[in-house]
Amino acid sequence: MGRGVATIRRPLCGALTVQHDDRALMRLLAYVYLHNGMPEKAVALFAALRALDADDRDAAKGLAWAHLEADKPQAALKVLDTIVGPGEPGAVVQLLRARAFARLDQNDDAQVAMRAFLALRDAAAKPVEPRRP
What we know:
Layout: E1 6-10, E2 14-18, H1 20-35, H2 39-52, H3 57-69, H4 73-80, H5 91-103, H6 107-125
Antiparallel strand pairs: 1-2
């Protein structure tokens, strides 16, 4: 996420300009909403962040998490399916997928996603051996 300015068009209101600091505040507020039992408000904020930058993978992960907390696992999976890029699906995506599948009682898919999460987590935790001179 760059430090530039994002502009979106709102019907009847003209353009809305959102600075980098505004997006950071939106993320923080969404996180606070999630941790205080207001996932619907977090969904709205993360969805707005995605509208500002459709390639924002962190906002997508936050949106999926908020959907899970709002008991909308199907919506979470739909968002997670849009995340593409280097290193994806990463451990966080696999964990969110496992939680969504478990909520949908798709236990086989949940187990596969959880195994993928564990493998990715373990691979990231392995220490790198120092180079020898």
